[in-house]
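Thread: "does anyone have the structure for this chain?"

Original post by V.I.:
We have the sequence but no experimental structure in hand. Need at least a predicted one for the grant figures.
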Amino acid sequence: MGAWAVRDRFLNLETRWFNLIGEHLETEQGNLLEYWRVERAHSLIVLALLDNTLLLPEPMYRPGVGAATLDFPGGRVSPEQSLDTAARQILHRELGIDVEPSLPLLLLNPGGWPVNSSFSNQRLFGMVAHLTSSCSPTVPHRRYACSPAGIEQLLTQLSCLQCRAVVREWQVHNDDMP
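Reply from O.Q.:
Generated one for you, tokens below.
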């Protein structure tokens, strides 16, 4: 199946957070559609593991849902930034952890997952940081055991679908889980 032809762009609203684009598209069948899409930076969620526990920042208010939610450390990745650099900045910002440059970070999904492929170009990436005792968090945080029971307890408190997808991906590929 081929790409639809762009007949015209009637809106291109650029903001600091996203670009909103309105276009008229012609389908392969010749139908003309008004279509809206968003271009935005990719997202990265980092699973921080320390002493066989997952570390999460305290719940934070999320304007999109109008409530505080429990989420893994995460954020946007600017186009000029590597995922590795972004992960280290996220861990510092959200957990107060300074990650040594030599600490390897494991990328769970190298191509990223489309967040909403019909509406946005944004992709979600997941990484795992196996922290050492020298990487202790300096801000309030929560810990969940890296065990089936600990993950199930965590999942009862995680409402974010992206966070749930990343932890499940890690769980599926983690041979070390008891």
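V.I.: this helps a lot. The helical segments are 83-95, 148-155, 161-173.
O.Q.: and The chain has three helices and twelve strands.
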